[in-house]
Amino acid sequence: MSGLTRQDMKRDEVQEQLLVGVEWFRENWKKLVAALVAVLLAITAFFVARIVMEGRSESAQAALGAALRLVTAPVVEDGATPDDPRAPSFADAASRDAKAVAALEAVVDDYGSSDAADVARMVIAQIAARGGDTAKAREIWEAAARQGRGTARGAAARANLISLDRQERPAELAEELQAMVDEGESELPTDVLLFELAQTLEAAGRPDEAQEVYQRLVDEFQTSAFAAQARQRIQS
User: Fold this and answer.
1) Of 168, 184, 208, which closes a domain?
2) Rounded CA gap, 20 and 81, in Å?
3) Which end of the chain has fewer CB within 10 Å, C or N?
4) Closest by alpha carbon to 22, among 154, 142, 135, 139?
5) Which of 145, 168, 191 is the last residue before a domain boundary?
């Protein structure tokens, strides 16, 4: 077998799971806010664990956790508690997002190049994209993709950039993704590329070709976390 270490294999597994989480977030946040809470909490737990393993400070963990509690805080009609550190809630999404971004930016300012700051930047970009500020989101993701080559953060950033491009130029992007699949020249795993390609073909108005790509993903990558999503698309 190759000279992969246990750390290498764990990194590959982490990258795939993070990409799956990002993809789920992009597709479902409008319809499944409750599920979004679970996804973000899972991402939070994972990165907090990484911070512990790599010897990051407890204060970074605490700051990131507090910021992400704001990100996932519920919007309520009455009795909002925006200043409750354990169970914050807000009267509207705009005020929640504003306070969450401020807390996330504080993590970036205070902890620089730490994993906690990396996570904070990625979530800031997600909030920006959700609010329609795709220019800000793109700037953050492009920086993360450049600086995080070969890492889970870099791969997640590239997947998000593909999502933005799919909204703006799906036909052109479909050709680019097909070339990446054919030539094997991408940091993203092939199963991820296939899933992105299928979604892009759908966006470009080529549903039959998209179904073929989903089927290829299911056939060739049966154990991929993206295969389950592909099966759902085939059956829908």
Assistant:
1) 168
2) 32
3) N
4) 154
5) 168
